[in-house]
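Hey, resending since the last one bounced:
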Amino acid sequence: MSFSNDVKNELSRIETNDATGDKAELLGLLRMSGAIVIRGMNIGIHFSTENAALARRVLQLLKSNYQVQTEVVITRSRRLKKNNRYQVHVVPAPQVSKALNELQLLSVEGDLKNPLLSHHEGKRTFLRGAFLGGGSISRPASDYHLEMVTGNEDFAQTIIKVMQSFSLKAKLTDRKNEYIVYLKDGESIISFLSVIGAHNAMMELENVRIVKEMRNNVNRAVNCETANLNKVVKAAVRQVSCIHYIDEHMGLSELPQGLQDTARLRLQYPDVSLNDLVEYSGGLGKSGINHRLKKLQDIAVGLGMELEKADK
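The C-alpha cells again:
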C-alpha cells in the first residue's frame, strides 16, 4: 500500500462532531473530485475512489449532514492492478439542491467567499477534504513531495490561498489540463500533515527527516575530515620530497642548525599533521615550524625542484 493511501486511511478515520467542519471537508472533497449528475429537474452527486475508507468517509459526511438518499456501487477496475472502485451516488432529488446550495458548490462567486471558509477550523477541514479528494504524497524514504491535482485553476488558487493562511508556501504548476498545487520541502509537508490532522503520518515523516538530516550531517563531517586529511597528507609528502631533494643536491648538513632540526623531525614523522609535529619539536610553536618548512620548500625550489612533481 502506498504512503498516500496510509495518510488517507488515517484521515478517513478521524472522528468529527462539528457540522460546519464536516461541511467544509465535504466542500473540499466534492470540489476536488465530485461530479454533478442531472436527472430531469433534479440534481445528484457522484463520487468515485479506489480507497474503501475514503468512500465510507464521504458516505458518512453526506448522510450525517444532509437528508439525502445514497447508493454505493462497487466495481472491479479493468486496469492492471484490478483494484475495487467504490462509487458513491447521491440520488437526484430536491433535497440535493439544498445541500449543494448550502455548500455553495454551484456558486459563481468563488470558494473564498464561502462562509464555511471564514474560520480557522473550516479552512483546516477544507484542506483535509481537498487532499483526500485529489492529493498524494511521496513515501518519506524518497524525495519530499506532496501535491493536490485539480482540473480547475480557480480552485487550485483557492487551495493555495487557504494554505497561505497556515503559513504554508505552496506552489502551482500546470500539466496538460490539470493544475497541481505542491510542496517540496520536508518541513512544509510536516506542517501541512499537522494542519489536516494526519498526526501519525506526520510523526513518521518527521522521524525519517531527522534520520536523513543526521546522516547528511555525518556525511558532511566525514567528507570534511577526509578533505582535511588529504590536505595534511599532501603537505607532508611535499615537505618530505623537498627535504630529500635538498639532501641529494646540497646536503642537509649545509643548512642552518634550526632548518636541519626541522628537516630531520619531518623525516622522522613523515605523515603527521603540523599540530602533531609541533608537539614532537620540543618547544617550537606552530608558526615557527611552519616558517621553517616553507623555508625548506623555498630552498628546494631554488635548487631546481618542481613542486608539481612533489605533489604527485
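The chain has twelve helices and eight strands.

Sorry for the duplicate.
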